[in-house]
Amino acid sequence: MKFILQLAMKNLSRYKRRTIITSVAIAFGLMMFIIVDSILRGAQVESVRNLRWYETASLRIYDSNYWEEHYFLPLESSIKQPDKVMDIVKAEGLTATERTTFAADMILYSKDFGEDGNMSVKITAIDPSTDFDVYRYPDTLIDGRFLEPGENDGIVIGSWFAEDIGAKVGYWVTFITQGNGGFYEAFDMQIVGIVNCPNPNVNRTLIMMDKSAADSYLGMDGAVTSIDIVLDEKANLNQSAADLQAKLDQAGLSNLQVLTWRDLAQDYIAMVEAKQGGSSMILFLVFIIAAVGVSNTMLMAMYERMRELGMMRAMGMRDRDILFSFLFEAGGIGMIGATVGIALGCLVNIYLVNSGINVGFMFRDMDIGFRIQSIMRGAWSLPTILKAFFSGILLSMVVALFPIRRALKLDIPTCLHHQ
Amino acid sequence: MSKKILTLLFALILLILPSTLFAITAEEIVKSMDALATYDTSYSTGSIQTTDRFGTKESTFKAWTKGTSESLIEFTSTAERGQKILRTKGSLYLYYPDAEELIRLQGAALRQSVLGSDLSYEDMTEEKTTLNDYTVTLDGSEVYNGHDCYILTLTAKTRQVAYPIQKVWVDKETYVTWKGEYSTSQGRLLKNMEVLSVMQVADRTIPKETKIDDAMKQDSSTMMTFDTLQINVSLDANLFSLENLTW
User: Fold this and answer.
1) How far apart are alpha carbons A211 and A97 in whole angstroms?
2) Taking CB atoms and an 8 Å cutoff, what residues of chain B touch A107?
3) Does ipTM exceed 0.85?
């Protein structure tokens, strides 16, 4: 076996050009595999982070009738005793904030916006004194200021939304909405701040106002539509939700339900699951490209060395040993390619993880489901690197098997007379 | 002297008496208004013409009503053919035949405009039980477009109604509401309504052409026209059911 291994290594160095070309094909394929996997993995990690930081928090408490009708943002199904719920949440050592979300028509005036217009919007009423404990908006302000507690006529909007409607700090808009019960209400609000939220879905639509102002306009009588809770990144999401639900039930608040961010971001989860198939297909194609390259090279190598093969067989070398010799040679090519590919992939990945690629120009006007606004970063995955390394070697050996077996089926004179 | 005073007092009482004895109250006016707009059953055809800055669009419909709380509207114009709006007690449903989809509307969704008009789903299918929801005051009289009208202000008693304040001009003879202004509780005008022409159906005077403007939107108005209206017609008992809606 030692001789066979030595022979395989010798052959690798004898045919340097072929070894290099085949290794480069494998290296390129595996580098692409690592890069594609890293980008997709990074997009998911960043999307989940931006979902939890800016859109859903970790857990959310709703009235049990709310979720079924949540597309209509029903104020009727609100949490009537938010203080009691907040006390329970705080007793559990969790950080939470109250929010009221409602639909409205936003009226724009030509005086500020150049022309009159109106559009349907979703408004999130927040408690400025506690909201930033749960959501990470403080770093996102790019113009103006944040809301102040009790502010009656101020709103903060997302920067993409502001760009789309041509809004600036100081502009006035009017909202028409239906309050709790169904009555119409109209109120004027001034844009006091613009935030550039890293979550594009939020940045495209965000309008925030003060919760107490919304309470007064909508006739909520202290009720809120949700209580949003932040958990530690490593906390067990489902266990925390189950524990909190149990506490609420014990306190006689079984009309409330606790949902995790996964329940809330069903569109994202569905999109990721759908994309998983597509991503696997991309990775499979990368492998196929590498496999075709290796297979073709090994086939050429076999035909190139047919007379040599015939001579070895004529000298009494067993077919099994010849098979192993060629297999080890293919494995060696695979190992060189895998090592180089992983090295290159890791080098590119260092940049992807630390700096990322700016895809803002692409995501600005298109929603692909990922909660990434501009910089798409990669993510490290040791299992992927190991998978790439071993697959590179194994794949090379497997695709080499067929041409070797074919050559070994020929008789010795045919091999020796092969041109 | 005392005889003269007594005669004068008697004459004065005679003068005042008719106006106090026979004066109609605001509640009675509203009851008459509601009665005019409520039928045991009705069947009508008509159109909704919506004008905005992009132009004018017309949709035609057939509508059936029963009492104060049940109504069914089916659109017959090509673009919306087969779309239906059903209101039963407390619920409003939309049916889209192309998608074979039934949607129950509630909350803010009721405020959505019907086919891009200035009418909301709620406006089109509103229950006519005004005195249950509003307190009413008679503010006076005014001749509006040649019609002698009472001016009433209706203030919502509950939060369950769309317009917290309504000011209406009601014809003293026919009880047709010639004009309406619908506002928020702070008095901010949301919608204007004006009846442009009427028609006689049985012994009632019914609005034929009604113009509705959304006061918050510029260059936008909706004209609702009834071409035919039959009242107290016999209707299928199953007409206002969800089963019928999806057929």
Assistant:
1) 11
2) 216-217
3) no
**Partner-chain residue, chosen from A107, A176, A181, that has the shortest CB–CB distance to B159:** A181
Most confident of A191-195, A250-254, B88-92: A191-195
Q: In terms of Cα–Cα distance, which of B166, B167, B176 is closest to B145?
A: B176
For the domain that residue B184 is a member of, what is the CATH number? 2.50.20.10
Has residue B11 been placed in a domain? no
Q: Is residue B10 part of a domain?
A: no
pLDDT digits (tens, 9 = 90+) for B128-151: 678 888 999 999 999 999 999 999
Binary contact (A184, B108; C-beta < 8 A): no
Strands B189-201 and B204-214: antiparallel
Domain boundaries, position B148: 26-245
Distance from CA of A65 to the nearest CA of B (A): 13
- Identity of residue B149: C
Q: Alpha-carbon distance A275 to A271, whole Å?
A: 6
- Residue bearing the bigger pLDDT, B220 or B172: B172
For residue A89, the model assigns a pLDDT of 94
Q: What is the pTM of this model?
A: 0.78
Residue type, A198: P
In tens, the pLDDT along A368-409 reads 778 887 788 888 989 989 988 998 888 888 888 887 887 788
What is the DSSP secondary structure assignment for residue B113, as one 8-state letter? B
Inter-residue contact A186 to A176 (CB < 8 Å) = yes
Interface contact A182-B217, CB threshold 8 A: no
**Residues of chain B contacting residue A182, judged by C-beta atoms under 8 Å apart:** 107, 110, 122, 159-162
Residue A73 to residue B108, Cβ atoms within 8 A = yes
For residue A118, what pLDDT band results from cuts at 50, 70 and 90?
confident
Spatial neighbors of B21 by CB under 8 A, at least 6 apart, are none
Taking the Cβ of residue B216 and every Cβ of chain A, the question of whether any pair is shorter than 8 Å is answered with yes
Give residue A129's identity as a one-letter amino acid code.
Answer: S
- Give percent above pLDDT 70 in chain A: 98
Q: How many domains does chain B have?
A: 1
In a domain, residue B4? The reply is no
